[in-house]
Amino acid sequence: MSDDKTVNELLTANRRLLESIAAGDWAAYTELCDPSLTCFEPEARGQWVEGMDFHQFYFNLGGASGPVNITISCPHVRLMGDVAVISFIRLVQKLDGNGSPVTARSEETRVWERREGRWWHVHFHRTVG
Fold first, then answer.
1. Which of 28, 83, 100, 104 could covalently link to 20 via disulfide, CB atoms 3.0 to 4.6 Å apart?
2. Strands 49-50 and 33-40
3. pLDDT of residue 118
4. 3-class SS at 112?
């Protein structure tokens, strides 16, 4: 597989992952994530989290109510054989509780591993800016 094709495949999978989060689509999220997914993220309050249970709690709360737009800014993909690291800024536009538009920003690094011909999301680090 050419590097350009692989990069496009990874960026498509990464966008699908972010859209599943915004929509609260647990089935799509679990289809993309390795069950032993690890992370550092603000919701974990500085703690390293392993597995899917921590994330499922937030999915059980439901997705965004109202329109959501996700922009992936400045993506950088580094391929290392069957592992890839995608670093980017995620901008999420939505309506606040009063119906006014707001934009949230996070800096993210997502690690993907190719096994048996497909990419699995295996680790991420997300900070809120």
1. 28
2. antiparallel
3. 95
4. strand
Angle at CA of residue 7, ends 14 and 22, nearest 5°: 10
Q: How many CB atoms lie within 10 A of CB 39?
A: 21
Q: What is the pLDDT of residue 63?
A: 75
Do 69 and 53 form a contact (C-beta atoms < 8 A)?
A: no
> Which tokens belong to 86?
């995608």
Please report the pLDDT score of residue 2 as a whole number.
Answer: 65
Q: Which DSSP category does 104 fall into?
A: E
Looking at the 3D structure of the chain, how many domains does it have? 1
Residue 114 vs residues 6, 26, 85, 128: alpha-carbon distances, Å:
10, 21, 12, 28
| pTM of this prediction exceeds 0.85 | yes
Ranges of the chain with pLDDT below 50:
none
- The CATH number of the domain where 92 resides is what? 3.10.450.50
Domain membership of residue 28 as a residue range? 3-128
